[in-house]
Specification:
Layout: E1 8-14, H1 19-33, E2 37-42, E3 56-62, H2 74-80, E4 94-101, H3 110-121, E5 125-126, E6 131-134, H4 142-159, H5 174-177, E7 183-188, H6 196-199, H7 203-215, E8 230-239, E9 249-256, E10 268-271, H8 277-286, E11 294-299, E12 313-314, H9 315-322, H10 332-341, H11 345-355, H12 360-366, H13 374-380, H14 388-394, E13 401-404, E14 415-421, E15 424-426, E16 432-434, H15 436-443, E17 451-457, E18 470-473, H16 480-492, E19 501-507, H17 517-524, E20 537-542, H18 552-558, H19 560-568, E21 572-578, H20 582-598, H21 602-614, E22 618-623
Length: about 625
């Protein structure tokens, strides 16, 4: 890591999906605008042991899952937790923390709160009270970031006036900032015949092409793997919900093509979706780009030490594999930069308004609420002709999509199964929107033999020992990982004793969306692993099949004594599904059961539940 001077502001970020990197860069831009020099680093690209040498550090940290730190923060955080660090270790160091989280989760912004408290414990001095960005806010995390930054600049100036030579209220003219490009594109005079990578159609060639493109992407996070672990080929695409019921949930089965990944139940697979070729072509045409040109992409300053594989690839291939042109909405900075390239005066004024604090709410209605895509925004402002290097920097990166695995490798040695809800919704202006990845997967014909780039990693649900009793709660597609749990235990039960499983499933109707009905029922009968005869049970809450809605937490309370007895026998709790209200409702149900069955007050039941969590017996995987 290069050294930097004391009047340079160090910004450290920890990002899982790229939002914290976006926010860190936004803080950096606003600091530069006030004449401050800035260094931005990913936490896993910074030696935590050198923190005491810093004057001032801004931390921008996202929270993942149920209060977890992002992967890029794990080593840094472990270092800070060392008991050998004294209470004065960071004396003289100033800091500020901004967190990105989702108040729909129980442990809202937990990583940022933990970091703030620990820095303070080690003697560092907070410049300003921590800021907490909330995904649920109408303007997303920017709703909290804007006011937080305003107080940050004035407080920073009081701490160290050399950060802002002309005062915290001075701002560099925007016209100067627009020249500070980060991305450089090199065009190569090359023919198809010269570029083996661009015409390679074998798996190795495709793998190298993906790795080369994504290593040159602006969304190349230091914790991100650019080379796929393997390729999957779809062999089954089955609709689980009744046609025309308003929901489309699919069961997909894939075979390993290149190599078998030794996954465990509870693991997660990420897939890289393909974009609609028509949308990619329309974007290239709208931006006057040469689809056949061979390019390499370079950065003025990389935020991490990941090597870039500088192999020339086709511009169209780069767009297809790295730039989300037709599903993700652009950030506010996109509109700001667009305003500099607008030649029609009314377009320029509208874009400048959108980029201003006064226009934030209107931008939200136009952009995020409608889920306008980059392509749609560019088409709405036809006078704007942005250079390709700005588009590479600002178009949201094409992200992999993560799914809980719904199979066991013991049951399917060469396969991985997924349970996917095909996402579609109507915007306030009655425009039909569809989820990029789920719609693409649903459209695939198993006969086509499409190769799907995939990455495997641990989820929030660790594989349970076969001797551990399980209490599973998984409404809707939350049942996905538990299908794998049940499959695995059924196979284990053929050769030895297994502990019981109680599973609480929820859906709207018995007829419409009772996912995997035959599978669950077969395992709950004839001494199966979900049968009451084996100490287990399978209980379904149909929320819409009667006048009063019944959810999983109601079914849990009906069987409170059985749950309590299993917990006394050492059972582990696993919960999966939507992150909105379900996890907190289920937590409250366990609290109530603990209180009623033990005769203890509710406060004691809450402490008991937290002790289960600390002991690794309460696991949640939730998604929005």
């Amino acid at each position: 890591m290069e050294d930097h001077k004391s009047n340079e502001l160090l910004i450290l970020y920890a990002s899982q999906t790229g939002n914290a990197l976006d926010a860190a860069e936004r803080v950096g831009r606003e600091a530069e605008r006030r004449g401050c020099s800035v260094v931005i680093r990913s936490m896993d690209d910074f030696d935590a042991g050198s923190l005491p040498q810093e004057d001032t550090v801004i931390f921008v940290v996202s929270t993942t899952g149920q209060g977890d730190t992002p992967d890029s923060m794990k080593v840094f955080w472990r270092f800070l937790l060392q008991k050998t660090l004294s209470k004065q270790w960071l004396k003289g160091v100033h800091y500020a923390v901004f967190g990105l989280g989702d108040s729909g989760y129980q442990k809202y912004n937990f990583a940022a709160k933990k970091l703030d408290n620990r820095l303070s414990d080690l003697g560092a001095m907070a410049v300003v009270e921590r800021g907490l960005g909330d995904d649920q806010h109408p303007s997303g995390y920017e709703g909290a970031l804007d006011p937080w930054m305003l107080s940050l600049w004035s407080r920073l100036y009081q701490v160290n006036s050399s950060f802002f030579p002309q005062g915290p209220d001075f701002a560099v003219p925007d016209t100067k900032l627009i020249d500070r490009r980060k991305v450089y594109i090199t065009y190569h005079n090359i023919s198809n015949a010269d570029s083996h990578i661009s015409i390679a159609s074998d798996l190795k060639g495709i793998q190298t092409k993906i790795e080369a493109a994504r290593s040159m992407s602006s969304g190349n996070l230091s914790s991100y793997k650019n080379r796929p672990d393997c390729f999957l080929k779809m062999v089954k695409n089955q609709q689980l919900t009744r046609e025309g019921c308003g929901k489309d949930v699919r069961h997909f089965e894939f075979e390993f093509v290149s190599e078998v990944i030794e996954y465990e139940v509870g693991d997660v697979v990420e897939v890289l979706p393909s974009q609609d070729p028509a949308a990619v072509n329309a974007f290239i045409q709208r931006c006057n780009l040469d689809a056949e040109a061979f390019i390499t992409v370079h950065y003025r300053e990389r935020n991490n030490n990941l090597p870039t594989i500088e192999i020339p690839i086709k511009l169209k291939t780069f767009v297809e594999l790295t730039m989300d042109v037709a599903s993700a909405s652009p950030r506010r900075y996109f509109f700001e930069v667009m305003s500099f390239f607008a030649t029609a005066e009314h377009e320029k004024e509208r874009l400048q308004y959108f980029a201003s604090p006064e226009g934030r709410d209107d931008l939200y209605k136009y952009n995020q609420k409608e889920r306008r895509t980059v392509l749609e925004v560019l088409e709405d402002f036809p006078s704007v002709q942005m250079p390709f290097y700005w588009l590479v920097q600002l178009v949201p990166p094409l992200k992999t999509r993560a799914f809980s695995i719904s199979s066991s490798l013991l049951a399917h040695p060469n396969q991985v199964h997924l349970t996917v809800s095909v996402v579609s919704w109507m915007t306030p202006y009655k425009r039909k929107r569809r989820g990029l990845c789920s719609t693409w997967l649903a459209s695939l014909d198993p006969q086509q033999g499409t190769y799907i780039p995939s990455w495997f990693h641990k989820g929030c649900l660790p594989r349970p020992a076969q001797s551990t009793p399980l209490i599973l709660v998984g409404p809707g597609t939350g049942c996905a990982p538990f299908r794998g749990f049940v499959e695995e235990r059924a196979i284990q039960s053929l050769t030895g004793p297994t502990a019981p499983i109680i599973f609480f499933f929820g859906c709207r109707n018995n007829e419409n969306d009772f996912l995997y009905r035959d599978f669950w029922l077969s395992h709950s009968e004839n001494n199966g692993v979900l049968s009451e005869a084996k100490g287990g049970g399978f209980y379904v809450a149909f929320s819409r099949d009667q006048a009063k809605k019944i959810y999983v937490q109601h079914k849990m309370q009906e069987h409170g004594l059985r749950i309590w007895n299993l917990l006394l026998e050492g059972a582990s709790i696993y919960i999966a599904g939507s992150s909105t209200k379900m996890p907190s409702d289920v937590w409250a149900a366990f609290e109530k059961i603990g209180s009623e069955e033990s005769g203890a007050p509710k406060d004691s039941a809450a402490i008991w539940l937290k002790s289960l969590q600390r002991a690794g017996r309460y696991h949640v995987e939730a998604w929005s």
